[in-house]
Design a protein that fits this description.
The protein is α/β, with parallel strands linked by helices. Helices cover 50% and strands 11% of the residues. It has two domains: 227 residues, 3-Layer(aba) Sandwich (Rossmann fold), CATH 3.40.50.300; 60 residues, Histone, subunit A (Orthogonal Bundle). Strand 3 and strand 4 form a beta hairpin.
Length: 309
């Protein structure tokens, strides 16, 4: 686990090589096809294997990446269902399952379960998104506060996806979502069932890594986004609403110069990284890998520390 650009993929691959493992991506963006640069999807190839067709990264099977059309929605429930099917299959092959990603809600949902909630309503979601765009996120949060004050206290206005989902559930269920939440989702991760590792970089170093990665990938990011638009994908499809893509869309439309787009993506990425680090920092039963100097990111040494602490 760790923030974006923290080196999760490289470390997971090193662990997979040492433990004869297969990787499950706990990432809400890398699941999408046709989106590589903007999602930092590990570069791999689809290959026929004895176990079936697999996405191989440096020879390691890497699951739940490059499989979903950008028009399709993907959420914690979808991830949990897929991961729970994959793990016994991986174990049946005598391999070690290694989960790697930065979408904390997916990881939490997998290990602690989700409450039974009504499915998403696309029309309702579209109306709420329009409200947020025309009147601001605060207006949407105020609506949540009017129908479920307890939920509004727990969800900040900036977390627009959770705000919309809370409103949606309250309306569809006919009672406040705060009365539906069981609370088990927020239990500590079950350390007896798996080994949990949190990579945490010093903030300035992480910001430099994010900025460098954004700058290095920007041209490819813009190119792949342009291809998606030319192919017929709408700007508001689920894939193009993920982190960084709205700024790239603004750049392609001439609304944002390249340097400003890179700065805006870096700022958004760091804001997200702060939330990720806060989320993962709650896990006192996780092995913490604190990195305060660039040279401390040594995948072989870190893998040794994880395997034989």
């Amino acid at each position: 686990m760790g923030a974006n650009a923290s080196g999760k993929t490289e470390l997971a691959l090193e662990l997979a090589r040492r433990l004869d493992g297969e990787i499950i991506s706990a990432d809400s963006k890398q699941i999408y096809k046709l989106m590589e640069a903007g999602t930092a999807k590990p570069r791999g190839t689809w290959t026929e294997t004895p176990a079936g067709r697999a996405y191989l990264v440096e020879g390691v099977p890497y699951h739940l990446v490059d499989t979903l059309d950008p028009r399709a929605a993907y959420d914690a429930g979808s991830f949990v269902k897929a991961a729970k099917e994959l793990i016994p299959e991986i174990q049946a092959r005598g391999k070690t399952p290694i989960m790697a990603g930065g979408t904390g809600m997916y990881i939490q949902a997998f290990w602690n379960g989700l409450d039974e909630l009504p499915p998403a309503d696309p029309v309702m979601r579209a109306n709420m998104a329009e409200l947020a765009q025309t009147r601001g996120r605060e207006a949407l949060h105020a609506e949540l506060a009017s129908i479920d004050p307890q939920a509004a206290l727990r969800i900040p206005p900036g977390n627009i996806q959770r705000v919309m989902r809370a409103i949606e559930i309250t309306r569809l269920a006919g009672r406040p979502v705060s009365q539906i939440w069981s609370g088990r989702f927020f239990n500590a991760l079950p350390a007896h069932e798996g080994k949990f590792v949190f990579i945490k970089w010093e903030r300035a170093l992480l910001a430099e890594r994010v900025k460098r990665r954004t700058s290095d990938r920007f041209e490819d990011w813009a190119r792949e986004t342009r291809v998606l638009l030319e192919t017929g994908y709408a700007e508001d499809c689920p894939g193009l609403k993920t982190l960084g893509y709205p700024q790239v869309l603004d750049y392609l439309a001439g609304r944002l110069p390249r340097p400003d787009a890179i700065r805006a993506i870096t700022a958004a990425s760091m804001a997200y990284a702060k939330r990720q680090n806060t989320w993962f920092g709650r896990y006192r039963n996780a092995t913490l890998l604190e990195l305060n100097k660039p040279g401390e990111y040594d995948v072989q040494a870190l893998a040794e520390k994880i395997i034989d602490p």
